[in-house]
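In response to reviewer comment 3 from the previous cycle, which asked for concrete evidence that the modeling workflow produces usable outputs, we include below a single protein chain processed end to end. The sequence was submitted unchanged, and the resulting structure tokens are shown without manual editing.
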Amino acid sequence: MCIYSELPKDKPVKYAPKELLHTFVRNYKEGNEPEWQSFTTVTGIAYIYPALHYYNDHVYASTEPRLLPWYVAAATIKINIVIAIDLADAMKPYLYTAKRLAEIIVNSTKRNDKIAVFGFTDRSIQEPPSCFFDDLMPAQPSNKYVLRYHINELRRIPNANTSYRMAIQKASIYLRSETRIKNSS
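The workflow returned the following structure tokens.
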């Protein structure tokens, strides 16, 4: 087996040597550690064995490190999101679309993101029931469910007007709470 520390000029390595792949298979079948093995050529071709684990002919887990939760969490930028939905009378033709877009954003959040959703007019702020009060919620599945339910329950408020000032003040409270939490840790 030939493993180079740099690409040989006379023999460009495009694929892992067959001996290496046979070693991967043998190690796996014999139950030798590690549970999965990887090799990357200097040209960027990566080999992972086994690439998938099977159970009753169905894939149930990938050993591809870029798909594992610890890698995704480490490689993903953490985002703080505040969604303010205008519930004033003027939103009547647009409210359905605004709510669907808010759901799309909630569904697209990752576990390490934090999010808040509220409806607003010049008279009120409508927030979901939450133990987080004025703090952003971690985008965990149960919290995302609560937010989606809240979005669907938001209704236009007859004779209400838009107050961006109220919305921006509330959004600022959510975002400041994240700064307060970071500074106290």
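The chain has five helices and eight strands. We consider this sufficient to address the reviewer's concern, and the full set will be provided in the supplementary archive.
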